[in-house]
Amino acid sequence: MRALIFTEGGSQIGLGHISRCCSLYDELEGRGIEAEFIINGDKEKFEIIEKKKNMVVNWLSKDFLTNYIKHNDFCIVDSYLAREEIYQVISSLAKKALFIDDIGRIKYPKGIVVNPSLGTKSIKYSNVDTNCYLLGAKYIILRSPFVQVERQEIKSQVKEVLITLGGSDIHNLTPVILNELSSKFSEVIFNVVIGNSFDNIEEIKSFSSKNIIFHENVTAEEMKSIMLSSDFAITAAGQTIYELIATQTPFIPIKVIENQHFNILALKELNLVDVALEYNDPFFKEKLICEIENIVRVSNRINLTEKYERVIDGLGSKRIIDALLSEEAKEENYFLRKAKSEDVFDVFQLSNEDYVRKYSLNIDKIEWEDHKVWFKNILKSNNHVFYVITDHTDQFLGQLRYKIENDSATISISLFKSITGKGLSKLLVKKSMELIRNERNEIRNIIAYVSNDNVASKKLFESVGFLLRENDSGILKYNYSIS
Q: Which residues belong to any copy of the N-acetyltransferase domain (predicted)?
């Protein structure tokens, strides 16, 4: 048994794909599975994987794939270049295929589709009935040194700043930033990370100053150390933002390529940043200075690090490989379990989906800070029973809650769209009613409040046996009596 990782990297592409796939490689290797990188790139050697089995070749051809993939191979594809027909070839040849996607780029063939990012809600996927989808923060891929890291302190004065523009700095931003900042903030040390695909190394190194330290071709462990020593970072809005969140390092993101668009949307929606810069903004320098003036304030940096807590738990690679190696990637079994503190972010994302808020009694979007307080109180409350819905990989798929008052319990349910329309709601409500009756035998009535416009919910509760009792200005009250 072996696992082939098809990806790309180079001077114009960067190393983001290779970097995140390293974690999947390590997870596979740790389970005793032979793994190999197959890289389409313009280099003969990549230092980032020099100790891993790899081949640099243009794999975007049916002939190569047909000759190289064996029928019992697991295949992982992380690409912005491969055409849909190439994915179809890999899917047909492999024992099982897993596709990493950030932007809903194509219609994926049979397999597992993973979107390992914060910004998944705006992306629409097809083939929901034939593919397994692993989406969101639970599947963010971190390199092993960044798992469960704790920052020791937030310094009152900024002493070090990290500048990292990805593996290639395709827009030559590093010299622009250094020219703007190194003399203006002469007492601050600038840790400048130079990727091994930079074409502008000599120009960058021409900035000879005692407050600039260059770090070339750093390992993951070295990058973690630099992040922890830096008080904030100026970064491209790619994979590095997740490592910064994991190390609780405040950062100013710069969108340097279009596929970072959804990352930026998610950062703003979660209130993890106020402003994201764009490399081609004519006022880039002025906006950068403005953001630096904000982030140097210790209260702002403390606020940011607190927001980063629990966003990423670092178990994404494990969950992804669990799904790849399971006997069936798509199970028809769904489970109810008690909510845990780790579910806070998943519940937040689902609760803020437009289709969920549309039929809620309070239609306003929920703020992250308010949600964290609410969630913590709900878990501790004896007047609430909170279940989450998962599949066999423990992927969060929905929530089902009961608020208990005397001998009555008010039910609320919301599911991700990936499992709606399959008749699951009825089964899950029935299962939850069995659980709540066993757990709280004082309950005699279960109540559901439904908007009159929410046709699906009305049909759901009526099919389970709820009876309509009241209509208060378009809010329907359903009741289920327990004998």
A: 334-483
Kindly write down the DSSP assignment for every residue of 22-79, as one continuous string. Answer: HHHHHHHHHTT-EEEEEEEES-S--GGGTTS-EEE----SHHHHHHH--TT-EEEEE-
Residue 354, token pair as written in the block: 């437009």
Spell out the long-range contacts of 91-100 with Cβ–Cβ below 8 A and sequence spacing 24 or more. 93/65, 93/66, 93/69, 94/4, 94/69, 95/71, 96/324, 96/329, 98/74, 98/320, 98/323, 98/324, 100/17, 100/20, 100/21, 100/76
Question: Comparing C-alpha atoms, which of 216, 266, 215 is closest to residue 237?
Answer: 266
Q: Residue 330: its pLDDT value, please?
A: 43
pLDDT at 297: 95
8 Å CB contact between 251 and 232:
yes
Angle among Cα 301, 307, 309 to the nearest 5 degrees reads 110
Return phi, psi of residue 356, to 5°. -80, -45
- Fold classification of 331-481 (topology level): Aminopeptidase (3.40.630)
- In sequence order, the 6+-apart residues with CB closer than 8 A to the CB of 44 are 56
C-alpha closest to that of 448 among 428, 427, 431, 470: 470
pLDDT of residue 12: 67
CA dihedral 198, 203, 206, 211 (to 10 degrees): -50
The count of residues in the chain is 483
* Topology (CATH) of 2-142: Rossmann fold (3.40.50)
Q: So where are the chain's domains? A: 2-142, 146-308, 331-481
Distance CA 411, CA 400 (A): 7
Which superfamily does CATH assign the domain made up of 146-308 to?
Answer: Glycogen Phosphorylase B; (3.40.50.2000)
User: What confidence score (pLDDT) does residue 328 get?
Assistant: 46
| DSSP annotation of 10 | B
Give per-10-residue mean pLDDT for the chain (483 aa): 92 78 93 94 81 94 96 96 96 96 90 88 67 86 89 93 87 90 91 80 82 89 96 94 95 91 87 90 95 95 89 90 72 78 90 87 86 94 94 83 95 85 84 90 93 90 93 92 83
Neighbour-count burial for 60-81, b at 16+ CB within 10 Å, e otherwise = beeeebeebbeeebbbbbbbee
